Amino acid sequence: MTAHVVAALLPAALLAGGFLTWLRRAGHAWPVAAMLSVFALSQAGMIAAVTGPGHSLWLALGVGAVAASASALAEREDARRIILVGSSLAAIQLCDPMGGLVAAGLLPATIAARQAREGPHKTAGLYALLLFLPVMAALVLLYLSRAQHLDLARLLAGPSLPGLRLDVRWRFSPALGLVAVLVPLLIELWRWRSARPALFVAIAVIASALFDGLAGVIRDPVALMAVAAPLTVVMLASSPPSPVHDRYALMTAVLCAGLSWLVLFWFLPLPIASF
Amino acid sequence: MEADRHSFGIRPSPLGVWTRRILVPTPRAPAQFRKKLDNAKSDEILVPQDPSLSNPADFTFYRESLSLPWSVNGGRLTVLTADASPANRARMTAQYGQALRLHAVSKQAFWNALAARFQAHLLDAAAQDLARRYPEFSAQRVITRGQSCILIALPVLLVLALYVMPVAANAALLSVLTLGYLGNVFFRVVLVWLGAVPIARPASPPCDDDRGLPLYSIIVPLHREAQVVPALVDALGALDYPVDRLEIALVLEADDTETIAAVRAQPLDDRFIVLEVPHGGPRTKPKAANYALSFLRGAFTVIYDAEDRPEPDQLRKALAAFCAAPQDVVCLQARLNFYNARENWLTRMFALDYALWFDFLLPGLDRLGVPMPLGGTSNHFRTGSLRAIAGWDAYNVTEDADLGIRLARLGLRVNTLDSTTYEEAPVDLGNWLRQRSRWMKGYMQTWLVHMRNPARLLRHAGVSGFLGFQLFVGGTFLTALLNPLMWAVFLYSVLFGSVPYAGFLSAPSADFPLLGLVAGNVLFTYFAMLGPYRRGWLDLTPQGFTAPFYWALISAASYRGLWHLFVKPWHWEKTHHGHSRQPPIRAVGGGGP
Predict the structure, then answer these.
(1) pLDDT of res. B43
(2) Which chain A residue has its CA at the smallest distance from B189's CA?
(3) Contact residues on chain A for B535, CB-CB shorter than 8 A
(4) Which of A53, A120, A208, B358 is the most exposed place for a label (fewest CB within 10 A)?
(5) C-alpha torsion angle, residues A111, A116, A121, A125 (rounded to 10)
(6) Better pLDDT: B4 or B298
(7) Cβ–Cβ < 8 Å for B375, B357
(8) With an 8 Å Cβ cutoff, are B542 and A128 in contact?
(9) Could you give the C-alpha distances from A223 to A15, A55, A177, in angstroms and in order?
(10) Which of these, B489, B389, B399, B545, lies nearest to A127 by C-alpha position?
């Protein structure tokens, strides 16, 4: 219990700090930033992580880091931002190998495409820089799973609470939940180029949830939906501040929080013995 | 006639001893001053020099006033001078007295006369000054008795420990190696991160008036580099700095007739001084640089290699940086890279290596404020400070690295300079190996010199400086020496499914060093790929995948350097230049070639 709390507090603190920093730096007013942060953090997956495995928090943090670093790199290219994108894509493999691979496949394209005018060799160089660390992380995981019999399934977003009634019938529920929550914001922000990298990360997360569903992998929808919070914040922070965007983002965060709690209670076994 | 025009210097007369015939290639003294001279009729003199009129104690005055007491004739002192301006004349009068007869000669002839008069003194100072003034910093003694004892005792104790208590000794040895290796990896991660963004320094005051610029001296030691002389003169001639404020010393070995002939064939203007270093003491670049330093009058001095192509505005940038920096910043290290970076695999890898070193690691050290080993060329100094610390160590074959550490130990600082000098990367393996062996040997020398008294080093450099020195200087050659062993262990584990020391350690402990090795190598490969990023050379990035093969070569060079440390510690293995098929181009700034 204590270990869970400690393990959950660190990513929770990082997420809270990240939310406020991203939003304030993007020029959003304190009340909007604070309100959005509170709603984003009050999702079922985030709260439940304090009492169970803190996996959903780490996953949310990883996805947020990928989205934020990609947005920062798209805004201005420098060596540090390249390192951040590469290392966050590598780190996300540890939380979600499938999502990490999909993100690694999608994201550099959005960034490196801008380099295409500088010639294929330089574009290849940028791809190599962005993909080297995630590919190495994937290879290490593959080696560990083969040679050291590491259970990769345990690395997937495990249940946010022990004993959830997850079965194969609900394998598409995470993807559907994310679509329901994120698509309105995606549509609204698509026209802003600066928000595209974060949107691509959101698409990658949805795509990986779909792939998992197609592959018959059962994932905890509550844990996976927790990633919608940082995505919402980063998407908003990387688009020009406007009241319309703020309303959409708040709506997304509230919707996400509400839906996550509903989903949690739907899958929760009764009585709540594990609490 | 033409041959005479290009011959410079002093030729021993058939009678020898102190009679010198000074031939002046072209009259250099301004006409308006020459007319006022007592003996303005001829620039050629054939008079005996009286060496008792000058002495080493006044050398600084001779250098600064460009004057040398030559002979006494009819009760009047004849002074050889390359500056007969009224101001200097007054200065000489104050020094030598009223009864003065000036003989104006060109600067080159003056330097030749000065060199001839003080040859033994200058040569001795060039080789021994550091050893006399700061014996603890000189590599003239390779290793102390205490260090020898430790280096012998350590392996003996280790073997004994492995025999007596194999499990504990294995665990301790692996722990030390792994911690050292991971410490080195972590330190480089920090340096890359810190060095990844340019350092914002306070802007320097603009200098609108070139007449206010100080005299800047350039030292270029050359040895068996006749083929690069024309391009060198062209590159130095392209430097954007007022001609009358620049002093370029081409430093040649007296017996290097080929390079001397190549230099004589060049139409050198007033900026250039040609100095011939007489034979004696170690034949090293630092000795030649020290020799030249004695002659130079600039407030600032920079050292370049013969094949260097500095960006034309480098001197102005350095001056601006010095003006903006505190007085304790006495040295600026410009960035280095290669104009023939894309010539072959070796040059590409070398370019990645240099890009990482100069564009990330050194700026990282600069930001951390830990001692920075200088990088051979394009080191800009406040001349006075350089003289005060006895210049370069003539016995150290990486005198640059040693000087950077010594500066830090003496409480002085080195900053990086955002300007690039392009060099020629060795295009063949033999040449590369010779150069890299010398560097590794020099790093070992430098480490041994500064670790003679670790407590004193700790006191001088502070904890971060001490650790930085261990990881950056010691870590560089130790990692290279250990890499083959660690890779051998890794290959063994892949082939046989367990590590060779598995019998002594439990599984997680036994695997940890290998995991560290793999993680470290992955990161180092990534850094090699990242190196060219800041230069915009992303086309070289995929070459970084082959970095492990390059590290194997570095390891080979390190073992060769280690061997040479014992058998010929002060031998300077010459790197030959001028072999590139890519023509040396003039650096233009920005992203470079």
Answers:
(1) 46
(2) A83
(3) none
(4) A120
(5) -10
(6) B298
(7) yes
(8) yes
(9) 15, 8, 11
(10) B545
CB B552 within 8 A of CB B491: no
Query: Burial of B93 by CB count in 10 Å (0-12 exposed, 13-18 middle, 19+ buried)?
Result: middle
**For position A170, what pLDDT does the model report?**
72
Residues composing chain B? 593
Are A122 and B193 within 8 A, CB to CB? no
Is B17 in the same domain as B113? yes
- Residue-wise pLDDT for A176-197, tens only, equals 888 888 888 888 888 887 788 8
In terms of domains, do B427 and B576 share one?
yes
pLDDT at B501: 74
Domain count, chain B: 2
Residue B251 has φ and ψ, to the nearest 5°, of -105, 115
Same domain, B80 and B149: no
How far apart are the CA of B591 and the nearest CA of chain A, in angstroms?
14
- The whole model's pTM is what? 0.85
Min CA distance, B132 vs chain A (Å)?
Answer: 46
Range B42-61 average pLDDT: 78
Pairwise CA distance, residues B104 & B40, whole Å: 7
Query: Prior bond to A108 cis, omega within 30?
Result: no
Number of inter-chain CB pairs under 8 A, A vs B:
58
Is B237 in the same domain as B329?
Answer: yes
Same domain flag for B238 and B272: yes
Given B97, B117, B137, the domain boundary residue is: B117
The mean-pLDDT minimum among A110-124, B411-425, B448-462, B474-488 falls in A110-124
Who among B360, B522, B534 is closest to A136 (CB)? B522
Q: Tell me the β-bridge partners of B247.
A: B217
Chain-centroid distance, C-alpha A165: 24
Could you please report the per-residue DSSP string of B83-139? ---HHHHHHHHHHH-S-EEEEE--HHHHHHHHHHHTHHHHHHHHHHHHHHH-GGG-T
Mark yes or no for CB contact A132/B529 under 8 Å. Answer: yes
In a mutational test of the A interface, the residue from B352, B358, B541 whose CB has the highest number of chain A CBs within 10 Å is B541
Residue type present at position B436: R
- Residue B335's pLDDT is 94
Which segment, A94-98, A233-237, B168-172, B186-190, is predicted with the most confidence on average?
Answer: B186-190
Looking at the fold, whether B206 and B70 belong to one and the same domain comes out as: no
Tokens of B152: 């012998």
Domain boundaries, chain A: 3-267
- Residue B574 backbone dihedrals phi, psi, to 5 degrees: -75, 135
Q: Where are the alpha helices (DSSP H) in B217-344?
A: 229-237, 257-264, 285-293, 314-324
Which residues of chain A fall short of a pLDDT of 70? 1-5, 7, 48-54, 109-118, 147-168, 268-275
- Token readout for B186 is 């972590």
Please say which residue of B91, B117, B143 terminates a domain. Answer: B117
Looking up tokens 């020290």 gives B290
For A193, the token pair is 């180029």
pLDDT of residue A273: 41
**CA B143 and chain centroid, separation:** 22
Cα–Cα distance measured from residue B52 to residue B295, given in angstroms and rounded to the nearest whole number: 20
State the smallest CA–CA distance between residue A41 and chain B in angstroms.
30
Contact A220, A166 (CB under 8 A): yes
- Determine how β-strand B379-382 pairs with β-strand B329-338: antiparallel
Does B520 lie in the same domain as B488?
A: yes
Contact A83 B544 (CB under 8 A): no
> Is the complex ipTM higher than 0.90?
no
Task: Tell me, yes or no, whether B66 and B198 share the same domain.
Answer: no
